[in-house]
Design goal:
Blueprint lengths: L10 H24 L6 H23 L3 H21 L8 H35 L1
Helix pairs in contact: 1-2, 2-3, 3-4
Length: 131
Amino acid sequence: MRFLPTAKNNIWFRWMAVYGLLFWAVMLLYRFVVLAEPFDIMIALRFGLLALVVSGLFNLLGWLGGRLVWYLSTAGLITGLVLMFSYSYRDMSGWEDLAGFLTFVLFTMGGFALGLAAEGIYFLVRRRRQA
């Protein structure tokens, strides 16, 4: 946890920009290279919006002090991306792109929920020790 900035530090906003750009690049790589779909600017912009929202949410919670949320959400996002890429190489009779994206969404949301739960438990334990 040492490489993450402290709460309320403006470095989190740089993290958000880099995080969002990397996530957007991976989504574009998946859609237009791995799935070999023709380039569509509207799809690329929608992926950019998705990357902006996800990056903004995860890093804003980190800025507020939720490091566990950031770690577990990022772990869920990376796991979801890896599984999404692996599903694209399976023969699922044309459903591999949808199954991959749904798996990505499931693991990303699962990591986020697990991060919120872990942060809540950490908060309660810390509060109980103070009392």
